[in-house]
Amino acid sequence: MNFLFAERTRKFWRWIYTTISLHPKQLVALVLITVCIGMLLWRHSRTIHVLVAPDSFQDAEISFFALGDQGRGNHRQRKVADMMEAVCQQDRDVNFTLLLGDNFYGNGVRSVDDPKWLDQFELTYNAPCLRGMPFYAALGNHDYIGNPQAQVAYSQKRLGSARWRMPSSFYMQDFGSFNNRILIRLVVLDTNQPIPEQLELIQRAFKNPEDSIWKMAAGHHQIRSFSSKYGDSQQLIDNLLPVLRKYRVDMYLCGHSHNLQLITRAAEPLYVISGAGGARIRKIKNDTTGSLIYRAEQHGFVKIEATPDDLRIQFIKSLKEERQIYTVTRACLRGVNKAKCFNEG
Length: 345
Ligand SMILES: [Zn+2]
Description:
By secondary structure, the chain is α/β, with parallel strands linked by helices. The protein is 30% helix and 22% strand. A hairpin with a 2-residue loop joins strand 5 (171-178) and strand 6. The chain is elongated and about 90 Å long. The relative contact order is 0.13. The mean pLDDT is 90.
């Protein structure tokens, strides 16, 4: 045995000697091959978990996260994702996430194989709780610098973890049910495209008021905003707001303004701006009209909880601070003076 051991040791050292005695070019090739194999193994180790998330929401209570302007692939996006995971694990009631556009900075994605899918979506939201839910997404202006159709194709082909939802660039989705009515009907708009082309969808979604208890619309660009760079959008006030008013849409969610805001105005939808998912924060102007209920110039996200009777809107920007929570009843929201509806907590 000792002889065998000694023989093996001798062979090992001889192999080491012959290896380092390689011609320099051979040695460089060996190092390069080792690095390539190492990178392949590392890439492979960053696996994404394939699952088919449930899209059948039958509960009488539905909760979701909403955030936009997240696709930076930086530490800020990961910090917000970590907070989402913590809240998801703590609350155990979140059904899905709504991404409000600018999913991939700075030039969108080139194709369904773009590495940004891994870095700015799959691996960023890959913790155990977030891994179990679908992500419904809207298209932002940065997504249009690249190939927006690739984001639709990634959804249609159920690629990656099969969580990405964008059946087309604008679409409708129902969530939950109560007394034979849909709890939330959500229309996700493509505000980069002309709104008149999407009016037929809005009309189909909301023309029968009895279909759904809560009527929500979402898009990347703001209708109303107090952001210093992107204020009210006259184009959307002219083209989109009248139809949202006509069908008494309860809430319009958007990003683009890189901050968090809650705005209420008489006879208009409630405006939830959640554009602080990763991109650089922008300032918010002072409000002299009394319609800006909440403002935060910090990274974070929004959690919406819907029951048949009320909505709870939570702004979350730190796990150390208390969440800012607004509860608004359905009856009050349908009334004249909505500003009085907002009970904190
Ligand atoms: Zn934007």
